[in-house]
Amino acid sequence: MEQAIIRARKFTLPVRAAKESRGFGRVGGMSFPDHVAVLAGLVRRPSVNPMGRDVSGPQYLEGRVSDFLCQQFATAGIPWVRQPVAPGRDNVIARLEGTVPDSPVILWDAHQDTVPGEGMSIEPFVPLVRDGRMYGRGTCDVKGGLAAMTVALERLARVPDRRATVVLAATVNEEFGFSGALALSRLWGTEDVAPVDPAVRALVTRRPDVAFVAEPTGLDLVVAHKGSLKWRVRVQGRACHGAFPEQGENALYAAARAALAIESLAGELLGRNPEHPCGPPTLSLGTLHGGTGVNLVPDLAVLELERRLLPGESAAAARAEVIARIAAACPHVRIEHEPPFNDAYGLPDGTAASQAAPWVEALAAAAARTGRGRRTAARYGTNAGVYAAAGVPSVVFGPGSIAQAHTADEWIDLDELACAVDILVAAVSG
Q: Which residues contact 41 (CB under 8 A, 6 or more apart)?
């Protein structure tokens, strides 16, 4: 059996995921609930998103997590299929039928990928349990939510009365482009698409009635969140020898002026609509690369920036404003703005209304029994924006706090993870 190392307070023990008897994993003669064992299995399988970098290695891409999930569903007797999205990157889709005629379809979504683990203060892919928490890259964002949905689906398979059909989609590449969610949503469209594998079509038969998207919300319901645009800016110069810098055009100087223009606009944006539930619109410069040696005048600098948009804000207008500010700061400089590699996909408030309301209410009521379940808004983006744009009413829900996501010692509270499992099961069977 696969093993993951768990350090619990004063001792170190191997955790084995339960396979024959569902409900508990064995830990050195002790029993650990499945949600702990499944989360440990997910964390110890790195699924780092390359984030647009030209990198490779065993820690990158989602394949190991996909294999693990397929094994979990097969052991539980739940039909599953892999939907190829890109080389080495497959959505894993499982389907559990409702027990009432013409059951509505609820989509549970959780992404498989994580941000990189460099710079963490703990071993990123060695799950540690200490004082009721599990530490490791992805525990909070969002392998905790994925573990909760996986275990909840397995538990529902043993429940005789299910008021809805649940389709669990473990999607790829959420952290850098939403391509997994986009590939799934294209299956619901009416436009011509590439031929669909019959096995995929057998599980993805129609557009869901509602989507529950796993992210660390502290078991509250995020009903609105920002969208984002991310793109690269290429600042051109003219190279020459460092001994004669006046003969060239230093791309870094122009890039520095562009960076200052971005900083100025970012400050202005914080004063626009600051009372919005999602917070004000924001602009951030994430990377700046240029130059190949100290004795060369660089002819190229590349900036990557992100503009976070309020629900309903025009992505085109926001991008145009940034472009105009950079142009004003860098006259006579050759600047290319590449197409965005991450489109907006905000979640407008109200997308979980009308026919989806009973299911959202069921989720909220189940969460309320644990003292959670309030409706709130978020500054970050999620796959829910993709599904809402495809016509699926969507809410965001899951264990963990966004304050722990992407951190150097990322962790999740295991009691909260257990509550998430109970809430998901109750929302379908209660």
A: 2, 4, 17, 68
Strand-pair partners of 114: 48
Closest-CA residue to 377 (of 411, 351, 357): 351
Coil, strand or helix at 238 = strand
- Say which CATH superfamily domain 3-225+346-429 falls into: Zn peptidases (3.40.630.10)
Q: Taking Cα atoms as reference points, which of 119, 143, 163, 141 lies closest to residue 45? A: 143
pLDDT tens, per residue, the chain with 430 residues: 333 333 333 333 333 333 333 444 443 344 557 999 999 999 999 999 999 888 999 999 999 999 999 999 999 999 999 999 999 999 999 999 999 999 999 999 999 999 999 999 999 999 999 999 999 999 999 999 999 999 999 999 999 999 999 999 999 999 998 999 999 999 998 665 678 899 999 999 999 999 999 999 999 999 999 999 999 999 999 999 999 999 999 999 999 999 999 999 999 999 999 999 999 999 999 999 999 999 999 999 999 999 999 998 999 999 999 999 999 999 999 999 999 987 778 999 877 766 688 999 999 999 999 999 999 999 999 999 999 999 999 999 999 999 999 999 999 999 999 999 999 999 999 7
What distance in Å separates the CA atoms of residue 71 and residue 293, rounded to the nearest whole number? 50
Which residue intervals of 280-413 are DSSP H helices? 315-329, 357-368, 383-389
Please tell us whether the domain made up of 228-337 is placed in CATH 3.30.70.360.
yes
Residues of the chain with CATH 3.40.630.10: 3-225+346-429
pTM of the full structure: 0.89
Residues of the chain with CATH 3.30.70.360: 228-337
Could you tell me if 36 and 17 are in contact, meaning their C-beta atoms sit under 8 angstroms apart? no
CA 346 from centroid of its chain's CA atoms:
13
Question: How many Å apart are CA 321 and CA 318, to the nearest integer?
Answer: 5
